[in-house]
Write a structure and sequence with these properties.
Length: about 280
C-alpha cells in the first residue's frame, strides 16, 4: 500500500474537481492540469490505487452512481450469506471472526477494559485503530474529521476504559482489515440492536450494496428503519463492518459517520476493483 495516504489525497481533490463538472466527463489532460500534475502521473496514481484508468474511475465516482449500483448490485441479506465473506464477489480472502460484548460488559462503559490504539495508513487516508485482547473494536477514518476528532469520537464510546498506545500489538489485525488478507478479529461493543445491525452489515459482499430497510427486515425490525439507520451510523469499526454499503431506497447515499466523501470513495474504490478482478477473471 505504498504512498496510500498521498493517493487518497489526490483522489479527494479529483472528486471535488469532477463534481464541479456536473456529470460531464473530465479528460485526463484537463484533470491532470487542474491537479497540477502530469497526465502520466495522474494515470499512474489512479491505476496503482484502484487498478483502472481515470476515465473509467470517473464512472464509479459519478454523483448518481449509487443509484446504478443499487439497481445492479443490490443484495438481500437473506442471499448475502450464500455469497459468503470469501465468495466470488469478494476481492480478497479475508477471514473475519467476531464476538459481541455481553450486555453487562457494555453497561460498564469499558470499565476494566484495556484498549490499545495506533495510527495506520490506509488507501483512504489515516485510520485510527483500536483493539482489545479479544479483537478490533474501532477503525476511524480521519481524512475528513481530523485526528483529534476521530480520537475523541472513539474514546467517548467507552469512557471508562484504559487507553494504551500500542500500534505494534494491534498491527496484524489492523493490516488484515485494511489489506483484505489474513484474519481479523472483531469485538463488537454496542447495544443488542446495534450488534444485530452490525452483524447484518458483515454479510454484505464487497462491491454490493443494500438498503437500510433491507437491513431492518433482515433482523426482524421492519418498522424500525430509522433506529436501524442510527445503528448503522454508530458502527465504530469502519470498512471491516461495511456501513458504507448501506444506501437509501432511492439510491441516495444517506449519511456516513466519517464523511460522505469517504463513503463515495469507498464505494467507487470497491466497485472499480471488483470490475478489475472480474475483467482479469474473464481474460483467464
Amino acid at each position: 500500500m505504498e504512498h496510500a495516504p498521498y493517493h487518497y489525497d489526490v483522489m479527494a481533490r479529483a472528486i471535488a474537481l469532477i463534481d464541479k463538472r456536473a456529470g460531464t466527463p473530465m479528460p485526463l489532460d484537463e484533470l491532470a492540469h487542474a491537479l497540477g500534475m502530469s497526465a502520466s502521473h495522474v494515470q499512474r496514481v489512479f491505476t496503482t490505487w484502484v487498478g483502472v484508468s481515470p476515465k473509467r474511475y470517473q464512472q464509479f465516482l459519478a454523483l448518481d452512481y449509487a443509484r446504478d449500483l443499487l439497481r445492479r448490485n443490490f443484495t438481500t441479506l437473506d442471499t448475502a450469506a450464500d455469497v459468503g465473506l470469501s465468495g466470488s464477489s469478494r476481492l480478497h480472502d479475508l477471514f473475519v471472526r467476531w464476538e459481541a460484548m455481553t450486555p453487562g460488559e457494555f453497561a460498564r462503559r469499558g470499565e476494566g477494559l484495556s484498549i490499545y490504539w495506533g495510527w495506520f495508513d490506509s488507501p483512504f487516508g489515516q485510520v485510527l485503530s483500536m483493539a482489545t485482547d479479544r479483537g478490533l473494536c474501532g477503525l476511524a477514518f480521519a481524512a475528513e474529521s481530523g485526528r483529534d476528532s476521530a480520537m475523541a469520537d472513539l474514546t467517548s464510546r467507552w469512557p471508562a476504559a484504559t487507553y494504551i498506545e500500542a500500534a505494534d500489538k494491534i498491527s496484524a489485525w489492523t493490516m488484515a482489515a485494511l489489506q483484505g488478507t489474513g484474519e481479523a478479529r472483531v469485538l463488537m461493543i454496542g447495544t443488542p440492536l446495534q450488534i444485530q445491525v452490525w452483524e447484518a452489515l458483515l454479510r454484505i459482499p464487497s462491491g454490493h450494496v443494500t438498503t437500510y430497510s433491507e437491513i431492518a427486515k433482515s433482523i426482524g425490525r421492519d418498522k424500525a428503519v430509522r433506529a436501524v439507520g442510527t445503528a448503522v451510523g454508530r458502527n465504530p469499526v469502519s470498512l471491516l463492518i461495511p456501513c458504507h454499503r448501506a444506501l437509501r431506497k432511492s439510491g441516495a447515499l444517506g449519511g456516513y459517520h466519517w464523511g460522505l466523501p469517504v463513503k463515495r470513495t469507498l464505494l467507487a474504490w470497491e466497485s472499480a476493483r471488483e470490475h478489475q478482478v472480474g475483467h482479469q477473471r474473464n481474460i483467464a
